[in-house]
Design brief:
Blueprint lengths: L3 E9 L3 H12 L4 E5 L6 H7 L3 E2 L8 E2 H12 L5 E4 L3 E6 L6 E5 L4 E9 L5 E4 L15 E2 L12 E5 L3 H12 L6 E6 L8 H12 L4 E4 L1 E8 L2 E9 L2 E7 L2 E4 L3 E4 L15 E2 L12 E3 L4 E2 L7 H19 L14 H7 L2
Helix pairs in contact: 1-3, 1-6, 2-3
Amino acid sequence: MTTEAVTDALVIGAGPAGLFLAFELGLLGISCHIVDAQEHPGGQAATLYGDKPIYDIPALPRVTGQELTERLLEQLRPFAPAMHLGEEITTLAAGGDDGGWRLTTSRGSAFHASCVFIAAGVGAFAPRRLKLEGIEALEGSQVFHWRPTAGALSGQRVLVVGGDELALDRIDSLLADASPPASITLMHRRAVVQAPAETLARFEAQCAQGRVRFEVGQVSGLQIENGRLSAVDRSGPDGDLPPLAVDAVVVAQGMSPRLGPLADWGLVLERKQLPVDPANFGTALPGVFAVGDIVQYPGKKKLILSAFHEATLAAFAAADLLDPARSQVLQYTSSSSLLQGRLQV
């Protein structure tokens, strides 16, 4: 029987908006859990802009998406919220006599939260998958649509499928591993790989050094022996090619956002966005708030800076809802012993 985690707040999304929201909740003395469909925190900033500079974050003239994620995690560390990665919220239902909301995830986790915060960006980012017969049984063991864990492909013959910066990023990670694969082949349907000049130059050098092999083609099938992937069928510009012996396939064909189950939760949606009250970022459901790229209100700007502001107001609104009698005197981290105690400084 699944144990239900009881919490003041549940934050859906571990991107910049969700991480900063959890920080603001911590400052206000509100415990929370964070759930994200991706296997790592950072959301769109880390997934799409991990190595790309961002220039409009206050006090940070230049920061990559990954660096920003790391700074937000460091800021959040004193509150140590439980983080559930690689799990997608599948259901949201009223909490009944207990009030609040009950939620479940794709991995069977269950929560009862007094407040829910949707910080899902433009939706849950999911990798574009290879659609081949039998591939599901190999997911996570020999086929990887997400980044493999360090050392998982040590000494193996690896095929990377893709033709842009994400594919080259996967190759860089594999080559940098302390126990790298025995061989790496990049396969793309076109002879041109699209990536920034610096990244492309590094890839060309890897090919020239014999560390990576590049071929034009597409995977057309999987050869499975005794439940294990042994080779892939492939086709090239001029027809079918001989099977390629491989031990693992890393799929890096890009990411695409999708609303997923959120569309079935009874929330009001306008063009796949959630209308909110800009005074408190409440949705049409009581105790359910939303911030970030997924929200819509007059004057909305899809900027990380705006999401931080939205997260702050949503956290304060939740604090008022959870404790209507709480003091309305605004406290500052520079002078409040209470906030400094919560921050452990």
